[in-house]
Amino acid sequence: MQALHFGAGNIGRGFIGYLLNKTGYEVCFVDVNQDIIESINKTNSYKIELLDDDSTREIISPVSALNSIKQKDRVIESITEADLITTSVGVENLPKIAGLMAAGLLKRIENNKTEIDVIANENAVNASSTLKKEVEKNLSAEEIEEISKYVGFPNSAIDRLALSKEIDGEEVALVEPVYEWVINKSEMKNTDLPPIADVIYVDDLEAYINRKFYMINMAHAATAYVGFRAGEKTIQSTLADLKMREFIKSVLNEVKKYIVIDSHFSAEELDAYIEKTISRFKNENISDDVRRVGRAPIRKLGSDERLVKPLRNLFELDLPLESLTIVIAAAFRFDNSEDEEAVRLQKYIQEKGIEQAIPHFTGIVEEELINKIEKYYLKLENTEIGELIKNEA
């Protein structure tokens, strides 16, 4: 079986390519990083290292790689021959590969009228649907109709921390032992292929997306913002403090209450998920900088984003939300001079005031919620985050 994967970064090699290889696919990576391409092709393999106590290393083989700029014809030919196409290029880069993808799919339906799925595995909601729209921008109405007969774009949700380091001159993907890859089976065209190793196939992806985005992504950002305010350097050092750890758990327990109402997950399942999440974040084999995790606070304070959407839902359901409100107040205090969005956020607050900044960036219009966030924001000016957590949450 042949798999073509766009993106030879840490997630591509350490997660998607890894599981495809375990399933029996011969994986060909498509990328623009010539150093990684040459490294893969030199031995038809690459290494990954687990972020566990033993720093376990694995060699993934057989694999190959193509350059999407210098070898377009070969990439197009590979699209015609592949049994499965996947991506992990970053959602912002999907438009950059869409033209090449469209050309390859057009040639495929001319020469190989078999069904195939294209799965975009990005840290975004419904990334495959996004990729499909970008591909269709390069096609006529007739071509879109023809391709839709044979090509599916099933959405997926992925979850695995992936970093990298150089070992003996080779860039090695560092990945945590825990991971989750969920694919919407109802959107697939070709269901005759063997299931990908360790993948969860579902008919409704929304509950899994919400659980991941509004619990894991939310808690990761929450830990970064309170950790930054506490003067901690990493997610791990923040959670080494029992008080901080219990606070993040309280935030997760608040959000859990609406996830239970909004999904098929039971409270018991989510309790186990919370414990697993805290355990992952505490992993001392990882050094996760709070400045990196907290970057782009304007985006993360958006109306439908990881922090504000749960807050709005909890408010509408009249459920407890004090801990999450403190987190959002701390996010408005994320004064990181190295992050462009953080600089813009602080500039706006200085010029307009926090009372205007809250609805401007979050879209929150309820006066009660705005006042509550403002109250904690002002308290954080003269109160240590640890003291605020102890007294208020």
Automatic annotation (TrEMBL):
Gene Ontology molecular functions: mannitol-1-phosphate 5-dehydrogenase activity
GO biological process: one example: mannitol catabolic process
Keyword rRNA-binding: no
Keyword line: NAD, Oxidoreductase
Catalytic reaction(s) noted: D-mannitol 1-phosphate + NAD(+) = beta-D-fructose 6-phosphate + NADH + H(+)
EC class of the enzyme, as a word: oxidoreductase
Mannitol dehydrogenase N-terminal domain span: 1-193
Sequence ranges assigned to domain Mannitol dehydrogenase C-terminal in this UniProt record: 204-377
A Gene Ontology cellular-component term: cytosol
TM region(s), chain numbering: none
Protein's UniProt keywords contain Signal: no
Binding positions (NAD(+)): A3, L4, H5, F6, G7, A8, G9, N10, I11, G12, R13, G14
Cited PANTHER family: ALTRONATE OXIDOREDUCTASE-RELATED, MANNITOL-1-PHOSPHATE 5-DEHYDROGENASE
HAMAP family registered for this protein in UniProt: Mannitol_dehydrog
UniProt-recorded name of the protein: Mannitol-1-phosphate 5-dehydrogenase
Lineage: Bacteria, Bacillati, Bacillota, Clostridia, Halanaerobiales
The encoding gene: mtlD
